[in-house]
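Supplementary Note 3. Input sequence used for the single-chain structure prediction.
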Amino acid sequence: MPVSRHQTQRTLSIRTQLSPSCSWKPAREWVTAPYMDRTTEAINQLLKTVRTLRSPGGCNWDISQTLKTLRPYMLEEAYEVADAVDKDDMDDLKKELGDLLLHIVMAADICSEQNIFNMADVAEQITQKLIRRHPHVFDETSDLTPEQVEKQWEAIKAEEKKNLKKKFFDSIPAAMPALQKAWRIQQRASDVGFPFKTREQNTEAILDLLKKEDLTEETVGSILQLVSDMARQSGIEPEKALRDKNTDFIQRFNHLEELLEYKGYSLGNVEDEVLRQSIGIAFNGN
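The predicted structure, written as discrete structure tokens, is reproduced below.
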């Protein structure tokens, strides 16, 4: 429904939505009331629904959940959000963002039950962090390029953490997928001048490793590390590259399955020559 001129004029200050401890001068101070009202109502309803599900007389499954049992579900939902983005499916994205939000709210509710923190604490913390790391928006009037904003973000982040006793790679999540983590480690190390091998040296090292008689787990790990660094040097994110190739293989394999069904066969129940010809069509186009 279009917002009327009267509704647009009826606005709320963002400042009133924040913790009193958050002091700032916003560059964009007003948000329309209809949007804020609907969002606030929807989020409050979600919080109440989750609280009801986890209260006595609620759902036994929801009540039994802990942070550790929620962990695999949160990861799965995050991947499904990424999948919806890759497919450019906005209806699916709306659904998957909702599923991910549910697990965030439930995790916060579990922590609230244990008097650790609650959803308000989570929202206030990230809001204050965003404001603190965007002084060009909330405190100053100067416009920065995307590159300048990124450098400013990292500088403020470093300033915030300079008194914390953390190692260089501690900010990289331990649970990050291994290939993506290798790329991120190499990227960060390169930023501070770590001397990685050249592309040619990486290629030579990979060939030497492949010549080994026994292909051990350590050897495979070394090869993957080298491939990840070659991708970094070429401006390629290896996790995305491999994900795209997996998608391509699945699509071609699905085509193979359709070809076999058309010929009256099925996977696992097909003559070798028919399978070979069908693979040639599905994977090579001949």
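Confidence is low (pLDDT under 50) at residues 1-30. The longest helix spans residues 238-262.
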